[in-house]
Amino acid sequence: MDNLKRRATAALFVLLAALALIALAATACGGDDGDGAEPTEEPAATAEQPTDEPTVAVTVVPQETPAEAPEISFQAASGAITVDGDASDWAGIDGATVPMEQIEIPAGVDWDEPGPLDPIEVTLKVATDANNLYVLLEVPDDYDFAGPVPPDTNNHNLSAAAAVMFLIDEGAGPHMGTAAEDLEASLGMVDIWHWELDCGPGEMSGGGDPGGGDDPDCNLDDEYATEPEAREDDGKVVENSGAAPNATGENTLAGVWEHTARAEGAGAAGTWIFEMSRPLQTGDAEDAQFASGGTALVALAYFDADETLEGWTDTGHLESSSENGWIEVTLP
Ligand SMILES: [Ca+2]
Ligand SMILES: [Ca+2]
Ligand SMILES: [Ca+2]
Ligand SMILES: [Ca+2]
């Protein structure tokens, strides 16, 4: 599991570093030197530009701070949901259509190019009852599932994967706690539900042990991050952070997946169903806490197994944050 964690963390950091380069490239027209060699060391060039001065040519304005009006907002439904991979209990519930796209890696940067993927639009729905928050993520993509796999045979990349992220600390950025302008500067902690499909359709995933968000069997992990290089399973301490282990965490996050064309076999066109739930209140400092009448700020990621012949790559996943920032969900 450690290799997986390291790989996933490195992958997200590389992805977010790509975002920083894109932002720097955009500022270059305003007179900044535009040197992309050290993307994470030059964000001040953007931050120091007065945005209220019309004679200044720099026009890059951060879109990712939750203080700004969200691009996408919707109302969660009230009612119990059965987490079973069957989306029929969501049929009468409105959600949001969420555009997702890959990051573009700037030319000349020595990173592995991801395989090309077209932008997609997914459906996100949220519901609550007295005790739980429920999330439905529906992704239009063909059926690819390589598992279940033994623990030492890592071919997750040949199956679809998904992640749902929530704001924990007010002001935390949608790029794993940071904003695109400075991917090393944490603005607060985020909660991450990170799901690589090691268990089969219809099978309950998640439900980790108290104190630990790792799901060694099915790989629906309850995680947290303060910045791209500081992501861990709940209850585990980020290396050199000086923090204490979170021994009283609550990690019963659970999910069941299905695909509408699974019966037709690999490559059949259809829709992925990722159905998840978690208690509204967990008392876990490494989780978002949800309350009636409150809001949840959400961001999404999807990993397409068809991205390359070897499956999805570290830099190629589709994500919602760059275009949409946080998605705002009002809870009933
Ligand atoms: Ca269901
Ligand atoms: Ca937790
Ligand atoms: Ca968490
Ligand atoms: Ca696909």
The share of residues in helices is 10-25%
Q: In this structure, how is the largest beta sheet organized?
A: 8 strands, mixed
Please state the structural category: mainly beta
Instruction: Name the helix and strand elements from N-terminus to C-terminus, one letter apiece.
Output: HHEEEEEEEEEEEEEEHE
Q: Mind telling me the CATH class?
A: Mainly Beta
Counted up, domains total 1
Number of helices: 3
Shape: globular
Using only CA atoms, what is the Rg?
Answer: 19 Å
* Uncertain spans: 1-5, 8-51
How far is the N terminus from the C terminus? 37 Å
Bound molecules: calcium ion
Counted beta strands: 15
Q: Which CATH architecture? A: Sandwich
Give the rounded overall mean pLDDT.
Answer: 81
CATH topology name? Immunoglobulin-like
Strand-residue proportion: 25-35%
Brief characterization of the structure:
With 332 residues, this protein is mostly beta strands. It has one domain (2-330): Immunoglobulin-like, CATH 2.60.40.
Structure description:
Helix content is 10%, strand content 26%. By secondary structure, it is mainly beta. The protein has a single domain, classed as Immunoglobulin-like, CATH 2.60.40. Strands 1, 6, 7, 9, 10, 13, 14 and 15 form an 8-stranded mixed sheet that branches. The longest helix is centred in the N-terminal third of the chain and has 26 residues, at 2-27.
Topology:
Blueprint (H helix, E strand, L loop, with lengths): L1 H26 L16 H4 L24 E4 L1 E2 L17 E5 L19 E9 L3 E9 L20 E7 L22 E7 L8 E2 L13 E8 L2 E4 L20 E6 L11 E9 L15 E9 L14 E2 L1 H4 L2 E4 L2
The protein binds calcium ion (4 copies).
One calcium ion (CA) binds next to loops.
